[in-house]
Amino acid sequence: YGGSYSEQRFSPLKKINDDNVKDLGLAWYADYDTNQNQHGSPLYVDGVLYVSTARNVVHAFDARDGKRLWTYTPLMIPNPNLGLVNRGIAAYNGKIYMGTLDARLVALDAKTGNVLWNVEIADPEKGYSETMSPTVIDNKVLIGTNGGEYGIRGFVKAFDADTGKVAWTFFTIPEKGHEGT
Question: What is the mean pLDDT of each run of 10 residues along the chain (181 residues)?
């Protein structure tokens, strides 16, 4: 997500330049089966283009011809705090990771779209949700949380990339009653 850990979104490709960019054209396109808000950036890995769309639907397309390889559509807990958008996914070691609107972290098999594990980040009944893209570092999937408008306690959690087990939690907001000290 963002091209590298520096998140600059700058492509290091050299074959496309100021002289030949005018020769680029549309090779293929695909519909997402929704016209709702789209905030996530596509993610290219080993010839496959992955994209997360509204309501945490993930599509995998063959980057050469646009053939849809699989689609993942989650079942989520109904929650009035949920929006529609997902701001991105992460890839690591044959898995696609996504935070879901009902405050879960899901690991999908990159080849099939099958769920490998699905864990709770935080309790959506307490106002938590998830729209941000996770980041993978040292076999840990890092993700924060959303819900500040509902008075939640902010944090970043790290999950084992293979199992989904929580490795650590760092609270960005002090315990309730200790704010501002």
Answer: 73 87 92 78 93 91 96 76 79 96 95 98 87 94 84 90 97 68 42
β-strand pairing of 95-99 with 90-92: antiparallel
Q: Are strands 104-109 and 115-120 parallel, antiparallel or unpaired?
A: antiparallel
The dihedral region occupied by 32, where left means phi > 0, alpha psi between -120 and 50, and beta the remainder, is: alpha
Cβ 122 vs Cβ 145: under 8 Å:
yes
What's the rounded Cα separation, in Å, for the pair 15 and 110? Answer: 27
- Terminal alpha carbon distance of the chain: 35
φ, ψ of residue 179 in degrees (nearest 5): -60, 140
Full-prediction pTM beyond 0.85? yes
CA dihedral 87, 68, 11, 22 (to 10 degrees): -120
Query: Alpha-carbon torsion 168, 173, 175, 181, what sign?
Result: positive
